[in-house]
Write a structure and sequence with these properties.
This protein has 77 residues and is mainly alpha-helical. It has one domain. 94% of the residues lie in helices and 0% in strands. The protein contains 2 helices and no strands. Helix 1 runs antiparallel to helix 2.
Length: 77
């Protein structure tokens, strides 16, 4: 599995889980109360941010490794 596919999977999962938790938060607000709904919503936002951050870190790492490989190739010449 390449890094690009892992990044795509992380971004997709963050959107799927974010949407699911938003839906659960709306249902929770109606049945359990406002505070419970806001708690679930906050967890959903936090989870979305963490997964997007992980994908960004992997993307940056890949770009940095590509640049280092390019520099190494130039130095060997």
């Amino acid at each position: 599995m390449t890094q690009n596919s892992i990044i795509a999977i992380l971004r997709t999962l963050s959107m799927i889980f974010g949407g699911a938790l938003l839906f659960v938060a709306l249902i929770t607000m109606g049945e359990e109360g406002f505070v419970s709904g806001i708690t679930v919503f906050s967890v959903g936002i936090l989870q979305f941010i963490v997964l997007q951050f992980m994908a960004s870190v992997l993307e940056t790492k890949k770009e940095t490794l590509d640049k280092l490989t390019e520099i190494e190739g130039k130095l060997k010449e």
